[in-house]
């Protein structure tokens, strides 16, 4: 762990320590109460954006089918998780959950809601051109869809 502390950040080091601890308990080297000492990582956390750049996004889209590229565009434009794409509806059709939301997070565009982690209904914005493409694909009746053992309508 001391060697690992030179190469990785604190969260990764803590996760590795916990995994090693679990193995030592599993094989009988440690009792359930024994713990490995917490070690401070030498590498400082680098706070930087994990978003793709516009150039990276274009390269990804160029290598996808039209259907998948459109989903990727939607996800990138609105900050969606993959499973949230299956739940997108106009904000006028479904209200978001009552929780504080900073107005500056909303870009110009058409407002939609999605059901996210833990069932939270949140509001997102899509640029007009993407909203138009999405609405042109709207189904007349809802469809049941199963993704990773979760049912969506």
What proportion strand? 5-15%
Q: Mind telling me the C-alpha Rg?
A: 22 Å
Please indicate the count of domains. Answer: 2
Q: Cα distance, first to last residue?
A: 47 Å
Mean pLDDT: 88
Backbone shape = elongated
Number of helices: 4
Largest sheet: 3 strands, antiparallel
Q: Which regions are unreliable across 5 or more consecutive residues at pLDDT < 50?
A: none
Q: Please write the string of helix (H) and strand (E) elements.
A: HHHEEEHEE
What does this protein look like?
With 153 residues, this protein is of the alpha+beta class. The chain folds into 2 domains: 1-48, no CATH class; 78-152, no CATH class. It is built from 4 helices and 5 strands; from the N terminus they run H-H-H-E-E-E-H-E-E. Helix 2 (54-62) runs antiparallel to helix 3.
Labels describing this entry:
153 residues; alpha+beta; 2 domains; two-stranded antiparallel sheet
Care to give the gist of this entry?
The protein folds into 2 domains: 1-48, no CATH class; 78-152, no CATH class. It has 4 helices and 5 strands.
């Amino acid at each position: 762990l001391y060697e690992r502390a030179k190469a990785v950040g604190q969260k990764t080091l803590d996760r590795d320590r916990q995994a090693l601890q679990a193995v030592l308990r599993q094989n009988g080297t440690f009792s359930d109460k024994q713990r490995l000492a917490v070690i401070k990582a030498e590498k400082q956390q680098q706070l930087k954006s994990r978003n793709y750049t516009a150039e990276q996004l274009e390269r990804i889209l160029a290598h996808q089918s039209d259907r998948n590229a459109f989903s990727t565009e939607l996800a990138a434009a609105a900050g969606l998780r993959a499973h949230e794409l299956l739940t997108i509806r106009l904000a006028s059709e479904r209200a978001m959950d009552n929780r504080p939301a900073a107005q500056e997070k909303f870009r110009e565009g058409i407002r939609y809601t999605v059901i996210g982690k833990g069932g939270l209904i949140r509001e997102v914005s899509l640029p007009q051109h993407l909203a138009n493409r999405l609405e042109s694909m709207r189904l007349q009746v809802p469809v049941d869809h199963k993704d990773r053992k979760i049912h969506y309508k």
